[in-house]
Design goal:
This protein is of the alpha+beta class and 272 residues long. It has helices spanning 102-111, 137-156, 173-185, 196-203, 249-264, and strands at 21-23, 32-37, 41-48, 51-54, 64-65, 67-69, 77-78, 90-92, 116-118, 124-128, 133-135, 162-167, 191-195, 212-219, 224-232, 235-244. Pfam families: HSP70.
Length: 272
């Protein structure tokens, strides 16, 4: 969860200016969301009376699966696949693909079961059977963000004016830029990106401790990162990061499924 106070009047930050050293800003009296845009699940938080609170955005739960389904008619469906009969146009784990070129990501896309092609500018596009069209991971992310922002606005009864969004420690400039593009397309232009290890340290209040080093482990649905942070006078700085951008819960699931198939003598063609 991103539990952080931020100045909502800041302008959209270009990816080239995205820094690892970030001071903890102060919330002004406007509705600013903290969005954890996860590979597997997403959630939204707000600050109330100086304390973070998760909003219940999915059937009285604060967590919603990061799954977007495009039916033949109507708008996109977000979250659980309950009642979705045709999942061929359902997309999950697209966070692993956002902002990446076809050359970089087509193998990952294929491992996730998607049909991919090289789009304009060499970027990756995914085929959506229900729409008979090709979609970018950025476009799919926009649909998820629109749902999160709309659900938060409905609960608060007020317009959302800005957001702080977490991104993995090792997201590239292109991936950060694509995330910002998705947020803009979702209707928000006052946005601040926050590295996930810093978000974790802030959530634990570690910025208030005396100067020192902090080690953050981040094992998510798509990545495994280890980050070394330094805290000094309310500033958290990422000193070093290591990890694997292709190791996470998705990979564990895939290996377990493969083991089950091998143990039972089945093939993927026999399983629906």
């Amino acid at each position: 969860m991103i539990a952080v106070q931020t100045i909502c009047t800041c302008q959209v930050e270009s990816a080239s200016r995205f820094q690892s050293k970030q001071r903890v800003p102060t919330l002004r009296c406007r509705t600013v969301l903290g969005i954890d845009l996860g590979t597997s699940n997403s959630c939204v938080s707000i600050i109330e009376q100086g304390q973070p609170r998760l909003l219940e955005i999915c059937q009285e739960s604060p967590y919603i699966p990061s799954v977007v389904t495009f039916p033949k008619t109507g708008g996109p469906l977000i979250g659980k696949l309950t009642g979705v009969q045709d999942t061929s146009s359902s997309f999950s784990s697209f966070k692993r693909l956002i902002g990446r070129s076809f050359d970089e990501a087509h193998q990952d896309a294929q491992s996730l079961g998607y049909t991919a092609r090289e789009g304009p500018g060499g970027m990756l596009e995914l085929f959506c059977p229900s729409q008979s069209s090709w979609l970018t991971p950025t476009y799919i992310t926009t649909s998820l963000l629109q749902h999160l922002i709309g659900a938060a606005a409905s609960q608060k009864g007020s317009e959302v004016t800005g957001a702080v969004i977490g991104v993995p420690a090792r997201f590239s400039e292109a991936q950060c830029a694509a995330t910002l593009q998705a947020v803009n397309a979702a209707g928000l232009h006052s946005v601040h990106l926050l590295r996930e290890p810093i978000a974790a340290a802030l959530a634990c209040g570690l910025q208030h401790q005396e100067s020192g080093a902090i080690l953050v482990f981040d094992l998510g649905g798509g990545t495994f990162d280890l980050s070394l942070l330094e805290s000094f006078e309310g500033i958290l700085e990422v000193l070093a990061t290591a990890g694997d951008t292709r190791l996470g819960g998705n990979n564990f699931d895939a290996d377990i499924a493969k083991w089950i198939l091998q143990s039972s003598g089945l093939t993927e063609a026999n399983v629906r």
